């Protein structure tokens, strides 16, 4: 007997669960053709006594996991970029997985993506980190080139100082935890623990390794929010390193570290979203000193 592929297995499980809960074939159509296009804007607040008053009301826009090439085309990406531009955010952060399979996306599509990214403006900068799909499929240099042409600065085990009105915060970025070589000590070397520190890390479960370090907030993607959520059952499947923490806010460790996980934009493995709409997030910074 020919072994069943992982994709076929997940599809069969999804169909079985729909049947179990008495959900119609129309819902299957909805999960494949409608909900994946129902982009939402999630609004969150990040508060910390370490945030300088000048950073109050700064808008940090996080988007993640577009997975261009897998049931997410350049026209959808163009609409996403336009929606991001409408938010007029101060700081733009991309938390990984630009394309689904870098070796299967044409150079023309990548060039178009770079040109679209280049049109996004943010006075405090545009930054990104690698996701596992960015490293996969011989994509490491290819995706770096696209993002650089798009005006985004890579943080790969590095940090940057974000300055506003003479005050500063730290923005740090880890290499991908699955296919890269993340190094939190190298990432934070030379930064001040007294400054508010925001870390981008693609895989949310890596937060358990980050929590002992002087990081205030970690922003992640990777999980897609489970992509398919079944009532009373929960997440149908989540990828490795997104199994402890799947979406939204979590507090980790004794300090604690605040972790936020975006459901992301695109899909992977299967082109479905059910009770798990795609999103990008506006994080508004708040200082108690203002």
UniProtKB/TrEMBL annotation:
**Cofactor(s) the protein requires to work:** a divalent metal cation
Gene3D superfamilies cross-referenced by the UniProt entry: 3.60.21.10
Q: Name one GO biological process term.
A: lipid A biosynthetic process
- Pfam families attached to this UniProt entry: Metallophos (PF00149)
The Gene Ontology terms for molecular function here are:
metal ion binding; UDP-2,3-diacylglucosamine hydrolase activity
Q: Which GO terms describe its cellular component?
A: membrane
Q: Which UniProt keywords apply?
A: Hydrolase, Metal-binding
Top-level division of the source organism's lineage: Bacteria
Domain Calcineurin-like phosphoesterase span(s) in chain numbering: 59-225
User: Family assignment?
Assistant: Belongs to the metallophosphoesterase superfamily.
What is the name of the protein in this document?
Metallophosphoesterase
Q: Which organism is it from?
A: Pontibacillus marinus BH030004 = DSM 16465
Q: What are the top taxonomic ranks of the organism? A: Bacteria, Bacillati, Bacillota, Bacilli, Bacillales
